[in-house]
Structure formats: C-alpha cells, structure tokens
C-alpha cells in the first residue's frame, strides 16, 4: 500500500522519512514475495533476499531534497562526509560485466534467468530479445531449438549487455553480440532428475496417449536417432550447451564417443571455468555463496 501511495504522490511530494520507510518496507515485502517463487532451499534464502536488497539500494539514488509545510526545498550540496542520508552524494552502482546466461531447460534456469533480467532492468542494460512480430513482442526465443540467434537479427556489433533467452550456446556468436569480455553463467542438474522433470512437464503435450509411463518413455528415448525431432528429451542439457551445434549435426551417433565428448567439454572450459559460473541445482546453496 505504501508503494502504491508513493507512486501516486510522486517523489517530490513525499517527506524523506516516509520515503525511507517505504523503501525499507518494500525490501522486506520482496524478501517474502520473491523467495517462494525461486523455490530455493532455506539456506539460500538469505542470499536471495540480500541479493534483491542490494539491487534496490545499490541502484537507487539518495534523494537530496525534502519537503517542509508543502514547500519543496532546493537540493543541498552533496557531501561525502555527512552521516545524514539527505546530504550524501549518490553512489553509482558497482559496474558489472556483460552477462551470458546459458539457459538449460528444466534445471531451475527460469528462476535464475529472472534474477539476471531483474539486474539488467535495474541497471537499464540492453537485453537481446527476438524482433517483434505481429503475434509476439520481445520474444525470449533466440532461435531455439535451432541455431542461435534465429532470423531477424542484424549483424553482431557487440550491441547487447546480456542474454537470458532460449538459445543453443554458440560461444563465438554470443561474444560477437555481447559487449567485450562477457561473464558466462549456466545451471545444470543430475541427468536422471532432469529427464524425469522434462517428461512430466512436456510429455503429455508431446506424446498424448502413446507414451504414458516412464518405462515406455525410456524405450521411446532409446530409439531416437535424431535430436531435432525431440529437443526437450534427447540429451537436452548437452544440446542446450551446444553439443550438436559443435558437431554440426543433429544425429546422436557421437553421444557415446568418449574422445569426442571430452574434446567438446574441453572447448567449454574457457567460458564456463575461466570466466564463468556453473550452478548445480542439487547444490544451489553452495553455488549461491
């Protein structure tokens, strides 16, 4: 209610003390409103709430004016030594690198992508979204399950600050569309749990009544020879991270070729080990530290 009241009256009509109370109340409410949506364990909740709080306070400019008896005062000169918030100089938010969130389906990626998007919105950063069409606006689908970035994009010119959409990872193109020196983030999950989650979520709309049980699904999966016909189910985590794009084929013939698999994993080392972060859903507490 205070937030709505603040929005309607405008920042110049609200005393500083009321603004401080409103911001504090808003932060407290966000702690309880956002965390259930993230569905993270209890130990990670403190990090999540502090993360949101840091975004709000780190990006907000302290107000240097107040209102007395209905007459706004001119803003005073900012000071770097005053303990009074009214006179403190605005502190710019800490700079962050360009962010590339590699969305791996059914690994908790939607929640983390939302955090990255909120950070980008708060910092007024430019997100890479698919061009508007008559039926969609600012689509999150960047060519998936086909090649990144899909149709409609111009030539890459390092023009974006972050990527969070549905996309098959292509390190070279990601770097070309993002500003220099991006930071890469992704989430992964134990393969069996991820497969079960994908079956429960996409199975009914995909198979109808033809595949109803888990054993039937495993038999069907073993028969698949081409990833493109079933992008949600056939080796999906590796596929989203660019395995079949790296092979330049949708055939699953190399899925059990250990030598080829290790060469591909080695190619992911620079973006994800040297200048990136891999979060495991089963160890989300440790990953958020």
TrEMBL record:
Key words, A-Z: Glycoprotein, Golgi apparatus, Membrane, Signal-anchor, Transferase, Transmembrane, Transmembrane helix
GO aspect biological process, one term: glycolipid biosynthetic process
Listed transmembrane segments: 20-44
Membrane topology: Single-pass type II membrane protein
SUPFAM superfamilies tied to this protein: P-loop containing nucleoside triphosphate hydrolases
Gene3D superfamilies for the chain: P-loop containing nucleotide triphosphate hydrolases
Family to which this protein belongs: Belongs to the galactose-3-O-sulfotransferase family.
GO cellular component term of the entry, any: Golgi membrane
Subcellular location: Golgi apparatus membrane
Principal subcellular localization: Golgi
GO molecular-function terms, A-Z: galactosylceramide sulfotransferase activity
Protein name as it appears in the record: Sulfotransferase
